[in-house]
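Please describe what follows:
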Amino acid sequence: MQKSNRLLNFYGRVISTVILMSLLMTFQVFGEQQTEPSQILNENETRFYSDLEVDWPAELDLLIDEISEAALEAIEQAAGEAARAAVLSMLEREAMAFKEVNRWRVEAERFSKEISQTKRNRLRNIVITGLVCFTSGLLVGAIIR
């Protein structure tokens, strides 16, 4: 008992020392300095370039047009595939619901047949019980007289 108390006191002192050191020490962080000064322009200093100042080669325009057309085709194809997947998932859900409805219908028919069979058996059992009671009453009456 005394040994465990000494260990707890020792570990408590160590933990409190570590916590105090982590709270009281400041760590210096070093980062890279900027290589160029950043120029932040406000709206008054913003420069707009005209089409004449920006000299685009004709090949670049053709390349941009081709990339745009390819992107539109890819988007249309993806939209078609997404629609196809949505329709297929809807059909799958409908098929599962149809299977479930069929299962419940078959089970209901089976229960209906069991109920009608039980009713017929009940009627037959009532008739047999009545006949047994009637004949036993006749026999008991005949024996007692």
